[in-house]
Amino acid sequence: MTTRRDFLTSVGALATGVLALPTLAHAARVQDIGLQLYSVRDDMMRDAKGTLTSLAKMGYKEIESANSAKGYYYGLSPKEMKQLMQDLGMTLRSGHVGIDNNWQKAVDAAAEAGQQYLVCPSLPTQGQTVSNYERCADTFNKAAEACKKAGVQFAYHNHDAEFAKDNGRVLYDVLLEKTDPRLVAMEMDLGWVVVAGQDPFSYFERYPNRFPLWHLKDMKKGEAHSTVLGTGRLDVAKLLRGAKKSGMKYFFVEQEEYEGAPLASMQRNITYLKGLNY
């Protein structure tokens, strides 16, 4: 089964859903649910417009794209993607694109598509050392400057490898400490944080307001594989109650593996969230 990390490697993208923050004063119901489109990557490659129409009918509202073999928007131009989102009552809130020689092109496309965020989904250079993570932090600060000039917010998305240690330091913490919080936001993938044996709430306490974006991804018990929300090891309701401390503004449902059709899993995910009180 192809995982997101396998996919990113195979396409060379990184050499290379979302939920509006609800009122937290009272017990809340989930609203404005959105999705990371990697969850339906094959469907998007076959029929982007038809797939997005199906997701809109399910009730997904906010969308995060992922770079693909057909480009940033699955064969659509930035303007076409923006118009399609408007026609379907959706918002293209964010997109995943690796930092490479085409970064400025990606930034310009994000601005044209009306995105608020542009997210780098893995390290631009590899190496599980403090020195490499410091270099990556410098790269992120520079990439974020280009985003800022275009009116787009830069963010970085973690997997589990970032929580390894080098010389006693957690490498993810190096990124948090060496990036400019005014320029570099973090998109926390909750599933990978849990797989790495870390507590998201610890990060919310130590680095409040650094995580305006989340990936809400449930993980199978004892495995590093994603599953339908509510069937794995994440306490989704508890995590949502931590949204304010983290600074979360939106989160994106993401599921990488399935036991049936991807769109059927997306229906199960949104049904679960619509019925959730937290």
TrEMBL record:
One Gene Ontology molecular-function label: isomerase activity
Record keyword Isomerase present: yes
Start and end residues of each Xylose isomerase-like TIM barrel domain: 55-274
Signal sequence interval, chain numbering: 1-27
Alphabetically ordered keywords of this record: Isomerase, Signal
Protein name from the UniProt record: Sugar phosphate isomerase/epimerase
Lineage: Bacteria, Pseudomonadati, Bacteroidota, Cytophagia, Cytophagales
